[in-house]
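User: Good morning. I'm curious how iron/sulfur cluster would be positioned relative to this chain. Could you predict the structure with it bound?
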Amino acid sequence: MNSLEEVARAVRQCTLCPLHQGRANAVPGEGPASAEIMFIGEGPGAQEDRQGRPFVGPAGQFLDGLLASIGLTRQQVFIANMVKCRPPQNREPQPSEMAACRPYLDRQIELINPRLIVTLGRISLFRYFPGESITRVRGKLREKDGRLIYPVLHPAAALHRQELRAAIIDDFRGIPAALEQTRRGGHVPESPAVGVANHAPTTGLMAPSIPMDEKPPEQLNLF
Ligand code: URA
Ligand code: SF4
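Assistant: Good morning! Here's the predicted structure, ligand included:
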């Protein structure tokens, strides 16, 4: 698989795990190969399965709002999932399913080589930090296997719970600073040996970030 398109093609034909049986559409993930930030969710839900696109249901609308709150659009980032086919009844993907699906996500990460990986929720957090408490590590930049990982809560979990909504908005407000830290190749707590990605100098992508002392834009109150 030598390009993101090839990965997507392989995913759409994949029968490596039982999840292929229930899918209407596989959801390879989407975004530019040049994305500096990669978001990793859990797996497709009903809307995603219907459309073959990641985060297009209610959690996806919330994600769009969260991205907007830090001056980003989904066209600027790559959005993927741990498994590319919808688990029945939206249950959590099983370890065997994630293992079968792993080469696709591994290859997407290799091809994109993002500066920053944002894990959405517990399941993708465990890809890098198995068994870690999301409450403990969310909103903190960490290094693992030469990659910079910034764990946040899952938008679906925060969607209907007011107290988690404030928390996930906070998590997202830390993304610009985390990205800035990766650009400087700066010190990451608990892991001083930070590998610097091979991206060219940046293009001011994150410029419109929200100063920490301001409230998020009004639009987030609509969710
Ligand atoms: N939740 C996820 O984890 N991924 C999606 O693509 C949609 C909802
Ligand atoms: Fe293949 Fe992944 Fe879909 Fe399983 S979830 S069938 S491994 S693409």
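Residues 41-45, 48, 54-55, 59-60, 81, 156 surround uracil (ligand 1) (CB under 6 Å). Residues 191-223 have pLDDT under 50 and may be disordered.
Let me know if you'd like a different ligand tried.
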